[in-house]
Amino acid sequence: MKSPALRLGLDPDASKRVTRRHGLSYTQEYRAWQTMRLRCLEPKNAAYPDYGGRGITVCDRWKDSPENFLADMGPKPSPKHELDRKDNDKGYSPDNCRWATRKVNDRNRRSNRLVTYQGQSLALAEWCERFDLPRDTVKKRLDAGWSAEKALETLVRAKGPNGSHSRYRKAAA
After folding, report:
1. How far apart are CA 67 and CA 58, in angstroms?
2. How many domains does the chain have?
């Protein structure tokens, strides 16, 4: 009988070592499960204060079972995907976790500055990308007390070849 890793089409790693218990130890999914557990359950882990120390938990179904974690999450869509919690104030569970790219995961950090514009709250970086605006410019505007509407809709002076401000450009919505 094939191990769960091989049944799911996962390569346990180049060394082809497979444990007797579940066959997942050398997969990227197992590493994601293992680091999730360490952050939440091991007080000696460097990341514990930001996870277990602030109440982030691992659901009972996943706590001791990489097989259940893999069954619920499925294989990583690509090596560029990582484990992400949709709501950073909730724990690790099937309904709150997903595989996400680094860009998506970075924009889902609690340290991000959320900006609400036209009833939608997004990370400052995402608004700046959508409007093609320099993040530093919008951040300084907001820090100076500008409303989100004014900070995102105000024209940005484009610099000329010598660095002088020669014309205005409208950010694309």
Report:
1. 14
2. 2
